[in-house]
Amino acid sequence: MKLAYAYSKQKLTVQTEVSYYIVEDDENFTKLGVSAYWKTNWLSLTGGSNLYIAKSGTYASFRLAPTAYLPHAWQIGLQVVYYTKNSPTREETGEPVYGCLSVNKQFGKRWNLGVDWHDMFDAVSNDVEENRHAANIKLQYRF
User: Fold this and answer.
1) Of 30, 86, 88, 95, which has the highest C-beta tally within 10 A?
2) Within 10 Å of residue 52's Cβ, how many Cβ atoms?
3) With a threshold of 0.70, does the pTM exceed it?
4) In terms of DSSP H, where are the helices of the chain?
5) pLDDT at 56 > cutoff 90
6) pLDDT tens digit string along 3-25?
């Protein structure tokens, strides 16, 4: 079951969502989510949070993702996600924060070239058993 609500006024959009998941042979859980999006001419800011409630425990994640729109069709974005204790992602990786830095360049209306640096905080952490950070190069053509 899923319930959602969205509010939008000029440059600000706020959305909430509630979901209840039934997982066979496992624990059922409820997910409460809220997100907000705001944009000006040169900057956008997206943020949100998810709260997970189950019999085994409660945990949350918080996300912030600013993007700067620069001259000559360049974009620089950052996405940071914080996971609270008991989060499966945090328990699996050993790192409470995920970060991704993106740089993109638009060529005309159809071509986009970009580089993403995933798990950037993992690259400098001494607490993790295995480093998973990576740089991905992407080339996109839009029809």
Assistant:
1) 95
2) 20
3) yes
4) 88-93
5) no
6) 667 777 767 888 888 888 777 66
72 near 54, Cβ under 8 Å? Answer: no
117 touches 98 (CB < 8 A): no
- Non-local (6+) Cβ contacts of 128 within 8 A are 93, 94, 95, 122
Q: Encode pLDDT of 71-95 as tens digits.
A: 999 999 999 999 999 888 888 877 8
DSSP 41: S
| List of residues 6+ apart from 67 with CB closer than 8 A | 43, 44, 45, 46, 75, 76, 77, 78
Tokens of 18: 């509630």
